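User: Let's play a game. I give you a shape written as tokens, and you guess the letters that built it. Ready? Here's round one.
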């Protein structure tokens, strides 16, 4: 359970209930704080016509525009959990796509919002942002597989007009970090006269002067490759590793500090807890929220030598193989 402590009031703040209208108003009035990367068009944007398959009109909670992708954004709000939130938003999405010219004219003429030229705006896809207290597993899976077109945000109100939001995917801060990492990587590669897209070059650049961390990672990387193709992405603070439907976040150390480790590998595979003599930190504590980490995975595994790398791999490889057979 999420709890919010106020150092000013010296107490845990109570969660409060607000209506969808209040949530809509709060986000609209503070738009540039929550969504500075998007253009606000209108809240309660009315769609006239057969919107939901029953001959009835509909109303988009908030209509916005993404200047980077040049796509309209439909934001759907729910006070609590609603299993139909994605279906409702999809109906609105289909209607906007089918009536794109009318929506564009309303936006630019009636509401006087400056957009790119009509021919420059993407007409075949609309982005969705769904905001609710909870989402079911199917919604989360669909969003993560949507290639950035569906964003899920959990929220919680607290007293003193405090609003907590949690991006379940497409976190703008992570996207900015990724972009900055790519820029830094390309600049350094040009300076060093190295190929930009070479995986080994990315690894070398990430583990700069941490030779043992790099060596242990390469062992882990080769072990994974023996099972299935592996995708890696060297970001500014971690290496993101994906194999089938499993992901890992990797951080290198210098063998110092209380754990004396050279490599940290984060994973969501529960079987890792079966590994004997491995140093593992569970980010989810009983009665507390998930603590911060570099990466989204639950378990942090700290590795000191290659024997521990092999032990970790042996512990999780069957789970990875099972995932491979279902893909």
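Assistant: Ready! My guess for every position:
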């Amino acid at each position: 359970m999420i709890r919010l402590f106020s150092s000013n009031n010296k107490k845990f703040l109570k969660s409060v209930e607000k209506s969808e209208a209040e949530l809509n108003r709060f986000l609209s009035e503070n738009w540039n704080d929550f969504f500075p990367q998007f253009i606000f068009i209108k809240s309660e944007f009315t769609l006239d016509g057969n919107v939901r398959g029953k001959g009835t009109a509909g109303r988009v909670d908030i209509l916005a525009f993404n200047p980077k992708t040049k796509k309209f954004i439909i934001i759907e709000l729910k006070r609590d959990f609603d299993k139909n939130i994605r279906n409702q938003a999809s109906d609105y999405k289909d209607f906007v796509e089918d009536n794109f010219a009318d929506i564009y004219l309303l936006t630019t003429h009636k509401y006087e919002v400056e957009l790119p030229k009509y021919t420059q705006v993407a007409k075949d896809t609309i982005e969705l942002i769904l905001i609710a207290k909870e989402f079911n597993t199917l919604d989360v899976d669909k969003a993560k597989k949507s290639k950035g077109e569906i964003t899920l945000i959990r929220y919680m109100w607290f007293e003193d007009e405090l609003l907590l939001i949690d991006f379940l995917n497409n976190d703008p801060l992570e996207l900015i970090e990724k972009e900055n990492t790519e820029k830094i990587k390309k600049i350094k590669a040009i300076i060093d006269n190295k190929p930009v897209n070479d995986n080994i070059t990315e690894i070398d650049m990430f583990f700069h002067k941490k030779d043992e961390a790099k060596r242990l990672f390469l062992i882990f990387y080769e072990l994974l490759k023996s099972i299935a193709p592996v995708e890696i992405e060297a970001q500014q603070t971690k290496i993101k590793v994906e194999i089938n439907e499993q992901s890992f976040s990797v951080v290198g150390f210098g063998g110092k500090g209380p754990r004396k480790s050279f490599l940290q590998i984060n994973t969501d595979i529960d079987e890792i807890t079966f590994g004997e003599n491995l140093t593992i930190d569970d980010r989810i504590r009983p009665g507390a929220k998930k603590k911060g980490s570099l990466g989204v995975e639950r378990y942090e595994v700290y590795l000191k030598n290659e024997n521990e790398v092999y032990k970790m791999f042996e512990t999780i490889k069957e789970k990875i193989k099972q995932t491979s057979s279902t893909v």
